[in-house]
Amino acid sequence: MARSSPFRNKHAEAEASFLTWGPPDEGVEMVETFGEIASEYASLRKGCALFDMTNRGTVEVRGSDRIAFLNRMITQEVKDLPPHRVARSFWLNRKGRIDADLRVLVLGDRVLLDVDFLAASRAATTLDAFVIADDVQIADASDRWQRFSIHGPTALDLLGAVATHKAGAPLTDFTPGAAASVTIAGVDLLVDRQDDCGETGLHLWVPTEHAERVWTHLIEAGCPHDENGQTDSNGSLAAKVRLRPSGWHAFNIARIEAGTPLYNIDFGQESLPGETGVLRDRVHFKKGCYLGQEVVARMDALGKPKQILVALRFEPSPEGEVVQPLSGGHVMAVTEDSAETVGVITSSTIAPMLGGTAVAFAQVRTKWAENPAASFEVAAEGVRVRARLQPGLRFWSRDGA
Question: How many angstroms separate the Cα of 54 from the Cα of each of 122, 155, 355?
């Protein structure tokens, strides 16, 4: 049975539609939209958008040897990571394949691993299998934490107004990678920053039994509407931050624009780190040994992966229409003499910040991914549209970098 938000009924009362993340019987039910995708996306870019991230799981690592143990296991250097900091990493199997894409949140008494919910149980089990004589306890704690995120240029204004700081990074200087313990609506929770959508991105770790209270408080404090549904323009916090509850579609558009690939969509359990497009962000090449290191180091030093995640921009169709290729579409390399399939679309969207251009991530054979002059075509809506590679994965950023 699919996992649902603990307050799914509240979302349904707000006229949300839902989709399933993962297999229908084993996946996660997420909010697709609250009815107005364009408005939800606009809130993310102009104010801030609140997401119920039911697809995120949590693995909890305790014990006096937890840091040393994790540092021997995962691809990132975490032995010197101070409390209330976050680092991104991979957890690999012996063959160098990615068992989980992690965000590692260090606290004073434990470490929390942010993972795709579908990988949480597996990650906890496979990590625990390597605990021999260490004082380490590992558990899938996904049921104990509900995960929210707030993305947008006014997200920190909202957090600063509703949260009481308890420990960790000051909310007045909350840079990417920072984390803090705070209280919202009388509930003690954690917040960290990762800008997945190209705007300020705040990730909230809320005790499940208090999730609805925190969600309701954020909506009441940040949404600029009075009890009659009229826009509040009296200079209140809500008028300033312009919060809107939002669903997966708005987040997906923005994260593709910002160049943020996702585990189980753009790469997965059978992928090698070198195929993900985020190798340097997740792997520390000067640290000691970790599981799967030999495969990663050998490929980095002597070879290349067979394929790699790239970013493609599409031209209009021959009729001048913007056409969006769908996930699973074949990427063809076109030469004067032939056309051959060299990859597959993993994510795509129509990018508002690029004037409505169609863009996509794709896994493409490395030979072609490294050829800036290569010409590509993808079938979409009954026509073939041309695409070109762009450097890196990021299509858009607020600072233009």
Answer: 17, 20, 31
